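Let's see one such:

===
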Amino acid sequence: MSDPPASFTIEDRDRTADDRDRTSEAHDKVSEERDDRSDARDARAQVRDQDLGFAADADADRAGARRDRRASAGDRQHSQDDREAASADRVRASLERRDLVVDGLTTAHQRGPGLADLEREVVKARRTGQAFVLAFVDVDGLKAINDTRGHAAGDEVLQDVVAAVKGVVRDYDLIVRYGGDEFVCGLLDLNFDEAATRFARARKDLADRGVAFSVGLAVLDGHDTLQALIDRADLAMYEQRRSRPSVEGRDH
């Protein structure tokens, strides 16, 4: 089976991988049948060897057994090739799925799928009664950095900010690139003070390297939609930026 074109969708690649797996299974079945035939021919050859009158038949059986084994080896190679191709298809599909979800520059989640995941976190928090804090992060002075030091330097700042946030939150906490220099992060089962402490640490770590961001925190209540929570965290971020003495722009 030939390689699928580069324009294949993720679903096409998954179907192709499944087809290749089925083909490899068919090759395995044929090779097993040929092995059985070659074993039977070898057995007949051994019996015929005991009677000199059937020596020619024994040689024919052995020749047939050799042909079957060669064909069986070819089928097994085809089966191995198909399995390897199927595995490569699945790897490509997995990478394409990742590219649909992960922002290539910062490794944060892209906005669409990221917000969908955050919405599920909000629903879970409401259902379980767990605390939920949403952080709105805005990189300080990114335009000035781009204008004076170039976009490569600005890209590096964005990467540094996301890396610093990842360094203080948990592996499973969602970080979403909300806009060009804006990120939102959902913290399930974490209270306001704990979240504020974590982000204060991230800001301090970056300040030592000359990078700054502002952050606002909003705590989920029983009536919040995700967008309302984001809006309150965004407002808290602006309040924090204006006041500047602390990391928290407490939203209540």
Summary: Residues 10-101 form one domain. The two ends are 62 Å apart (CA to CA). The longest helix spans residues 55-101.
